[in-house]
Amino acid sequence: MATFITKLAIRYAFLAIFLSAGVESFGINYGQVANNLPPPDKVLELLSTLNLRKTRIYDTNPQILSAFANSNIEVIVTVENEILSQLDDPEQALQWVNSRIIPYLPETKITGVQVGNEVFTDDDTTLIQHLVPAVVNIHNALAQLGYSNIKVSTPSSLAVLDESYPPSAGSFKSEISQIMYQFLNFLSNSKSPFWINAYPYFAYKDAPSGIPLNYVLFNPNAGMVDPYTNLHYDNMLYAMVDAVSFAIAKMGFKGIEVRVSETGWPSKGDADEVGATPMNAATYNRNLLRRQMASEGTPLNPRMRLEVYLFALFNEDLKPGPTSERNYGLFRPDESMTYNVGLSALATSSASTSSSSISLASSSTKIKVAPWECKSLVNWMFVYMLILTLLG
């Protein structure tokens, strides 16, 4: 037993070494469709303790933006779909930026604005007509006020693609091609990324007998080779991202970076939601984190690390739909882990000790947090000493 505990501690110690420096391309979605979440200042402590430096919220919640001021957390905010029609008026867009963004700058590190969410495939088909004008107007308003560094875009679901397999066959649906061209032209001119919500879980759930589970979970597997490019894919997420890149290229654009605004795996689902288990969720997210720590790119763009935002930080009890929708969180609302994906390796001790500790907490144990100002160097030093002690 002692040997097992020692090996386990060493494993988490090495994980802490990687994470203590921060994973620059990794963020997490902070949803709020719940009535039992911790206050924003506690969420800030949790993110900072785990050395997660990027988050995305689905509105411009003033409590969150105020609480995150003077922290090292970068925040992407969202324009709600419901107000898109107002923002195709430049004056309304300027007013929105002045009231929702400017009061929090520069103390809060707002790095991006997502105009709507999955607008291209929203059930309300009238929204799409307002998307590009709203995106352009928000961008122009930010530039007018001296914040052209804040990138403006919109996240899309994979349903924007007419074809996605093999990746080289990627193409956008013809019915959205005109507006998609306008949007891509904006991204190209403003050097903004194309964001995609990509969930291998959905593909597996719909065809569990036809898709190898290891392929969607990033586990070792034979993978697939695109017959037209000879590129080898050992996981579905990278194939999804490259399918979008091929679709963009077919529209005549180059140099637009594709980033993942959402991906994740539910830890619980209904009887017909195949694969929604804590084990699969932990495996998917842990393997994704390892890829992020390695700063991997996709087979099509191996030298460009793929930026990914995991969904989600918390389980959200008020989300509608199937059970899975309320069970994507790494954490429960009481800040205990839904399952241990490895991020707990960065948990620090109380402020009174001012030192780091490795959390080997079970899923029912809360992570202890320390002030966000705790430096990564402390983690490195402690982990080094811990390894020496364990191996000595």
From TrEMBL:
Q: Which InterPro entries does the entry link to? A: GH, Glyco_hydro_17, Glyco_hydro_17_plant
Establish whether keyword Amino-acid biosynthesis is in the entry: no
SUPFAM superfamilies in the cross-refs: (Trans)glycosidases (SSF51445)
Q: Which UniProt keywords apply?
A: Glycosidase, Hydrolase, Signal
So which domain of life are we looking at? Eukaryota
The reactions it catalyses are: Hydrolysis of (1->3)-beta-D-glucosidic linkages in (1->3)-beta-D-glucans
Q: Name one GO molecular function term.
A: glucan endo-1,3-beta-D-glucosidase activity
Q: Which Pfam families match?
A: Glyco_hydro_17
The catalytic activity of this protein is classed by the Enzyme Commission as 3.2.1.39
- The keyword Signal is assigned to this record: yes
| Signal sequence, renumbered to the chain | 1-25
Q: Which biological process annotations from GO are given for this protein?
A: carbohydrate metabolic process
PANTHER family in the record, alphabetically? GLUCAN ENDO-1,3-BETA-GLUCOSIDASE BG1-RELATED-RELATED
In the record, the note on similarity to other proteins reads: Belongs to the glycosyl hydrolase 17 family.
**Name this polypeptide is given:** glucan endo-1,3-beta-D-glucosidase
Q: Which organism is it from?
A: Psophocarpus tetragonolobus (Winged bean)
